[in-house]
Design a protein that fits this description.
325 residues; mainly alpha; ABC transporter involved in vitamin B12 uptake, BtuC; two-stranded antiparallel sheet; 2 strands
Length: 325
């Protein structure tokens, strides 16, 4: 009878991936880090704006975008698929904002309407044209980061750079960091108070659409490896974990990047042990890190709150604010 959980071997889980299998492990972990870091930096602003599910909507809209791109171009090349999915992501953002601002429907409802409708449209198109599109639906939904090492290595002047998917994600991650640094003030102010942003001469609407457009680029770049579903977790978990450990946004950004690195490495080891989806294992590792921050966070952790409650019990007559002063 097959074991439910494979036997654990320290050498196989921790040593072999970085020795005998380093050529594959290195690219997989690097890709996981780039995806999680780029998604985490953008996701921080989604969390601040209470729009985390916009990433959900955009990630699901790539399915009809890819199907329509094939029908228009007749090509399953990465460029056509990327442009189709990107266009679908931008259209999703426009639909959400139009429904929200032109009707009495609230934003969360508009997000639900947009992503479910577009995802259903994608399912219908794939089912109708499945024989022609020849699109792996499971790959779109769950991704397969383990296939990254099988891609041909891109070389420039005889110098090998890496798989094309990794290079594209590296460019996206680098541009994401650059945009956060250059437009830090605009993103910060408009995320917290759009009225204040307008009074300071910042076009909050333009910043919003620019952020949503770049979110589409990040999501579309990432879904090839982690899928349309798991990319949602990578948008939310790094920022959510970092926000439990820090309050200042620059520190939250830094912790989100560290979270991305740790979840990629730990997820790779977990996938090696359980022989399961690498992208799924990375998200499970990220969830584990979030749980640790939630329980043991220095200020907002459950254990810290329990200690504060225990310490304040003898002084039941004192107001709660007295302790903080």
């Amino acid at each position: 009878m097959t074991q439910l959980i494979p036997s654990f071997g320290a050498h196989r889980v921790f040593v072999e991936p970085w020795t005998e299998q380093f050529a594959s492990t290195g690219w997989i972990v690097l890709m996981g880090f780039l995806v999680a870091a780029a998604c985490g930096l953008v996701g921080n602003y989604l969390i601040l704006r209470r729009m985390a599910l916009v990433g959900d909507a955009i990630s699901h809209s790539v399915l009809p975008g890819m199907a329509i791109a094939f029908l228009l171009t007749g090509s399953r090349g990465s460029v056509a698929m990327f442009l189709g999915a990107l266009a679908a992501g931008v259209v999703t953002t426009v639909i959400i904002e139009t429904i929200h601002k032109r009707t009495r429907v609230k934003q969360d409802s508009a997000i639900g309407i947009a992503f479910t409708s577009l995802f259903a449209l994608g399912v219908v198109l794939i089912n109708i044209f499945a024989a022609k599109v020849d699109l792996d639906q499971e790959c779109v939904l769950y991704g397969e980061i383990a296939f990254i090492p099988l891609e041909p290595i891109v070389s420039v002047a005889g110098f090998p750079l890496g798989p094309p998917t990794v290079l594209r994600m590296a460019v996206v991650a680098a541009v994401t960091v650059s945009l956060v640094l250059v437009f830090y003030k605009e993103l910060l102010v408009s995320s917290f108070d759009s009225g204040l942003a307008v009074s300071l001469g910042i076009n909050a609407t333009l910043v919003h659409y620019a952020l949503m457009s770049w979110l589409s680029v990040v999501v579309v770049s990432a879904f090839e490896s982690v899928g349309a579903i798991l990319v949602i977790a990578m948008l939310i978990l790094p920022g959510a974990t970092a926000s439990l450990l820090a309050c200042r946004l620059p520190l939250v950004h830094g912790l989100a990047v560290i979270h991305a690195a740790l979840s990629s490495v730990l997820g790779m080891h977990l996938a090696t042990w359980l022989n399961c989806s690498v992208a799924g294992a990375m998200v499970v590792a990220a969830t584990g890190l979030f749980t640790l921050a939630w329980v043991f966070g220095p200020e907002r952790g459950l254990s810290r709150r329990w200690l504060r409650t225990t310490a304040n019990e003898p002084e039941s007559g004192a107001p709660p604010a007295a302790a903080s002063r």
